[in-house]
Amino acid sequence: EVQLLESGGGLVQPGGSPRLSCAASGFTFSSYAMSWVRQAPGKGLEWLSAISGSGDNTFYADSLKGRFTISRDNSKNTLYLQMNSLRAEDTAVYYCAKGPIAEHPYYFECWGQGTLVTVSS
Amino acid sequence: EVVLTQSPATLSLSPGERATLSCRASQSVDRYLMWYQQKPGQAPRLLIYDASNRATGIPARFSGSGSGTDFTLTISSLEPEDFAVYYCQQRLAWPPLTFGGGTKVEIK
């Protein structure tokens, strides 16, 4: 069974730099692209970033303006999102999601339960 | 960026009724359109990929159709567990992968 478990969320000060993690199990992690998607309270879904199975290729939403960095450690079956210069509008539940193939995220076959990041002083 | 517009915003129906949800793209996305279901407090779940293919384990009462700019998700007979928010998502023109704003299917 595919399982994705996010961690690293919580209360963060404006300007903070948390790192989110997503531990994957139940599939060959390196064979699939992975994404981060967020959902602000009461709002819709926003794709943020993706990384190919090998980690060689990364993709970002322009709206992030270079503040977030996606990475993965295939030896640990773990996906990461380094978030910098956080502001109140980054408050959201952050989901990791598994893509259907190795090279491109395309869509989201499986999702973690999400980790809530609250940016507030 | 491809903008997806979902309608209606809210659909009020009774169990057993047919639900028809619409997703319109600002430019053609061919057949590269997905549908997700999200219940309160839960992560989204993939229902349909590439316009009309049901994801693993999705009941046959869910069906998708359309191509180009106009797509439809149909739930043939609503079950109590189908009351949720539904999102469409495109993968033709990316990055970014984009979602629609969602349609809430509520109990009438």
List the helices and strands and how they pair.
The complex is a heterodimer of chains A (121) and B (108).
Chain A: E1 3-7, E2 10-12, E3 19-25, E4 34-39, E5 45-51, E6 58-60, E7 68-73, E8 78-83, E9 92-98, E10 110-111, E11 115-119
Parallel strand pairs in A: 2-11
Antiparallel strand pairs in A: 1-3, 3-8, 4-5, 4-9, 5-6, 7-8, 9-10, 9-11
Chain B: E1 4-7, E2 10-13, E3 19-25, E4 33-38, E5 45-49, E6 53-54, E7 62-67, E8 70-75, E9 85-90, E10 98-99, E11 103-107
Parallel strand pairs in B: 2-11
Antiparallel strand pairs in B: 1-3, 3-8, 4-5, 4-9, 5-6, 7-8, 9-10, 9-11
Ends of chain A: how far apart? Answer: 39 Å
The number of E-state strands of chain A comes to 11
Major sheet details of chain A: 7 strands, mixed
Report the sheet-strand fraction of chain A.
over 45%
Largest interface: A-B, 23 and 22 residues
- Give the beta-strand count of chain B: 11
Helix content of chain B: under 10%
* End-to-end CA span of chain B: 35 Å
Order of helices and strands of chain A: EEEEEEEEEEE
Global outline of chain B: globular
Backbone structural class of chain B: mainly beta
Structural class of chain A: mainly beta
State the helicity of chain A in percent bands: under 10%
Rg of chain B, alpha carbons: 13 Å
Could you characterize what this model shows?
The complex is a heterodimer of chains A (121) and B (108). By secondary structure, chain A is mainly beta. Chain A has strands at 3-7, 10-12, 19-25, 34-39, 45-51, 58-60, 68-73, 78-83, 92-98, 110-111, 115-119. Helix content of chain A is 0%, strand content 47%. In chain B, strands 2, 4, 5, 6, 9, 10 and 11 form a seven-stranded mixed β-sheet that branches. The termini of chain B are far apart. Chains A and B meet through strand 5 and strand 10 of A and strand 5 and strand 10 of B.
